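Q: what sequence does this backbone want?
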């Protein structure tokens, strides 16, 4: 009685009417919003279909990595670059190679004689000669910096004096003059010693080592990027699979809502909510499919594939697993590994060695240029080559000379002085770069080790969140079938489950990428996969690659190009087959994969938001290694 009296009380009636009007206004507003969303998104969105008619090939991580190793063009380019640097280093050793030299000179000379010369030459007024000079020898640079020459000289002398009768009567005729001996020019200060002689050889050898380490660094980056792209492809596939299930779920809710409306037990508002949820999920489904195509294109590019000749698509069949605890060590142990294997540290250390070589050479060039010159040999003379040569072994006519030569720059050596200062500055620069690289590597290592453990904890938390959200959705579905829950509530529960499942997949990928980052910092990416090579092994592989290219080029010249393969006419789905989703069962736990997957500096990928009035789905890209 008290309640009925209060209801009929004028103030209470006014408040009640206001509440009813507000509720009616809210329902009308919601109804208009859902109608607008349905028209805007378009319930007629066609389901995601692959229309490119490209074959999809399922690959394990190991198979995909092998394809990248065999076909990536950047790896091949680095191989040839390292081999070219090695060839240049070998070429520098040729500076000590002995060189054989030879020359032939024809000398014709006509000159008038002075009075003194005429009296000496029996009154011959004009001197005429036609000679031939032949010279040959072997020259070489010695390790101490000197240049040695061992040679033989033959001169054929013919002039008009030989035809003039002497005081004793008769003429001599043409003559042959020989010389056999050695000469030495040796620096005593500047350019003397191994610092100057071996400078170019040491610099070229260190440059070859730098090129080899750059090859290893680029190789490791490409392998890490390839594995990161593989896990990114896995995530894109999982996201599309979840959205396929979400679309099926929305279609089921729409059918149930429509059936209840037709039977007079439901509301048209519920049908519009179901249509809006279905349209939104179809839109996200198409966005996820496009993201999958983009990721597949990146994966194909990494192993050198292109659209020429028919590009194929890749399907990732491996699932990420947790990294073994023993694979993540302590900072002290990992830092020692980093010092011996990190390519960036090795490159900067080698560059510092190069600057040390240049600095020692620059200091040597500041010395005074003082050279020792010496020569010794035997002379011979005769009317024939044989008689002239026979006099050489008799050592009756020795000849020798010794002396020094000095060169002093009048300006104090402007060039060498500035070159020395530049060498000192370059050396300091290399030292700062090495210290900076060590600090960056140390900080990256301290960050990467706990990140592996943290991402594992995040993934395990998402597993629990997924189980809880699955139970919530099951409960909401029962309420929907009983007519006690609105479709909007069911869609919210389904969106929470989707975010949990996508978050779990992304967390597992992030866990693999964090371990990839750790391997890159340690420099163990190639070692852990059995891909590390010595310089000799790299040289042999490069030669085999060059031989294969030459063979291929010859066969292409002799054989006409084959007709292109026909494009498959059937449409193949690039993602795993979606499972029926009226109840949306939880995703099974990830299957362990024996091979760890590395990548530097990953960032978390955002998940799709299905809540009413929410923003469009952000990019679901997983992190990629920076090249």
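A:
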């Amino acid at each position: 009685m008290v309640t009925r009296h209060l209801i009929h009380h004028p103030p209470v009636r006014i408040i009640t009417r206001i509440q009813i009007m507000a509720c009616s206004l809210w329902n009308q507003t919601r109804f208009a919003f859902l109608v607008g969303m349905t028209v805007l998104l378009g319930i007629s969105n066609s389901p995601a279909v692959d229309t490119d008619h490209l074959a999809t090939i399922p690959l394990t991580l190991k198979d995909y990595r092998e394809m990248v190793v065999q076909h990536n063009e950047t790896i091949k380019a680095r191989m040839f670059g390292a081999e070219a640097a090695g060839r240049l280093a070998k070429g520098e050793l040729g500076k000590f190679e002995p060189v054989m030299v030879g020359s032939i000179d024809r000398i014709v000379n006509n000159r008038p004689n002075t009075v003194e010369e005429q009296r000496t030459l029996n009154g011959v007024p004009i001197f005429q000669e036609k000679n031939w000079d032949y010279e040959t020898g072997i020259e070489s640079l010695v390790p101490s910096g000197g240049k040695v020459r061992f040679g033989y000289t033959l001169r054929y002398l013919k002039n008009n004096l030989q035809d003039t009768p002497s005081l004793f009567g008769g003429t001599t005729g043409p003559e042959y003059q020989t010389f056999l001996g050695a000469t030495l020019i040796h620096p005593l200060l500047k350019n003397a010693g191994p610092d100057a002689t071996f400078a170019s050889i040491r610099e070229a050898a260190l440059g070859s080592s730098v090129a080899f380490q750059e090859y290893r660094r680029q190789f490791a980056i490409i392998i890490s990027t390839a594995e990161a792209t593989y896990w990114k492809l896995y995530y894109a596939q999982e996201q599309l699979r979840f959205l396929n299930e979400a679309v099926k779920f929305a279609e089921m809710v729409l059918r149930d809502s429509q059936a209840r409306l037709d039977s007079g037990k439901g509301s048209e508002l519920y049908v519009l909510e179901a249509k809006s949820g279905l349209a939104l999920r179809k839109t996200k489904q198409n966005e996820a499919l496009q993201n999958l195509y983009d990721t597949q294109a990146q994966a194909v590019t990494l192993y050198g594939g292109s659209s020429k000749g028919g590009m194929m698509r890749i399907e990732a069949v491996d699932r990420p697993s947790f990294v073994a605890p023993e694979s993540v060590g302590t900072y002290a142990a990992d830092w020692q590994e980093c010092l011996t294997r990190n390519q960036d540290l090795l490159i900067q250390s080698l560059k510092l060695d190069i600057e040390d070589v240049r600095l020692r050479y620059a200091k040597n060039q500041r010395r005074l240029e003082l050279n020792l010159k010496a020569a010794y040999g035997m002379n011979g003379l005769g009317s024939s080559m044989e008689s002239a040569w026979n006099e050489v072994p008799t050592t009756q006519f020795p000849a020798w000379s010794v002396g020094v030569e000095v060169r002093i720059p009048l300006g104090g050596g402007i060039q060498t002085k500035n070159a020395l200062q530049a060498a000192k500055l370059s050396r300091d620069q290399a030292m700062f770069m090495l210290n900076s690289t060590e600090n960056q590597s140390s900080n990256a290592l301290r960050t990467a080790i706990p990140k592996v453990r943290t991402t594992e904890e995040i993934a395990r938390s998402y597993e629990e969140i997924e189980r809880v959200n699955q139970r919530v959705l099951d409960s909401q579905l029962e309420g929907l079938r009983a007519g006690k829950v609105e479709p909007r509530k069911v869609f919210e529960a389904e969106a929470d489950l989707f975010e949990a499942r996508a978050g779990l997949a992304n967390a597992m990928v992030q866990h693999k990428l964090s371990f990839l980052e750790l391997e890159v910092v340690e420099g163990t990416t190639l070692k852990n996969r059995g891909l590390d090579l010595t310089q000799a092994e790299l040289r042999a592989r490069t030669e085999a690659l060059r031989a294969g290219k030459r063979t291929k080029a010859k066969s292409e010249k002799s054989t006409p190009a084959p007709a292109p393969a026909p494009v498959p006419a059937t449409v193949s789905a690039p993602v795993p087959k979606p499972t029926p989703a009226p109840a949306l069962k939880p995703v099974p736990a990830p299957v362990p994969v024996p091979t760890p997957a590395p990548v530097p500096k990953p960032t978390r990928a955002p998940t799709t938001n299905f809540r009413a009035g929410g923003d469009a789905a952000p990019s679901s890209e997983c992190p990629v290694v920076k090249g």
